[in-house]
Amino acid sequence: MIQAALFGIIASMTAMKIKSIRPEIGLVIGVVSSFILAAYGLKEMKQVLDVFETIRSYSGIPKSYFQILLKLIGISFLCEFTSNICKDSGQAAIGKQIEFAGKLSILVVSIPIFQTLLETVQKLMGSGT
Amino acid sequence: MSVNIIFRIAAVGILVTILVQVLKHSGREEQAFLLTLAGLILVLSWVIPYIYDLFESVQTLFTIS
Predict the structure, then answer these.
(1) TM segments (chain B) (predicted)?
(2) Do B1 and A73 make contact, defined as CB atoms within 8 angstroms?
């Protein structure tokens, strides 16, 4: 963790310095350091997901729901990450569009869950015609 | 977590800036602009592997298709 913090401080210092001389290359430094930090964070997350997997296998929840959950986490992470990068580079409009697309794709991914919910409710109500 | 990619990009930035000043003073504006583009493209080519690694790990980790 200390490594990530140090890396972040060094990267932001150099990015600030280079931004005054060469704005576009300063921006690239900011982008590449956030990518490296994100990759570092994801490696940490792998162990957490493996533990979740073992817990899920005991509890008997079907794998498809867990997969949808993982997809949601991935989509929200990516969309947050890219929209912040766009905001950093001054393109707030593009960032907002990415957030909007992310929300839509989250909705699309979670449609099956709504369907199963409605089916179970239908069964419970005994489709009272 | 290697920091040298950051310092390499910074070095390219400073180098490009100095060369652009030299070209400007010797009256070659177009070469200065082309040099800026070349520096930017070189830096971007260094950055792309890191971007690819991140998206690859996100895809495998969250089983996004």
Answers:
(1) 6-23, 32-52
(2) no
pLDDT 10s digits, B8-53: 999 999 999 999 999 999 988 899 999 999 999 999 999 999 999 8
Answer whether A33's CB lies under 8 Å from A11's CB: yes
DSSP string, A50-93: HHHHHHHHHHT--HHHHHHHHHHHHHHHHHHHHHHHHHHTT-HH
Contacts of B11 in chain A (CB under 8 A): none
Is the confidence metric ipTM above 0.90 for this complex? no
User: For chain A, what are the domain ranges?
Assistant: 1-59, 61-129
- In a mutational test of the B interface, the residue from A9, A29, A110 whose CB has the highest number of chain B CBs within 10 Å is A29
Q: Residues 6 or more apart from A27 whose CB is under 8 A from it?
A: A15, A19, A88, A89
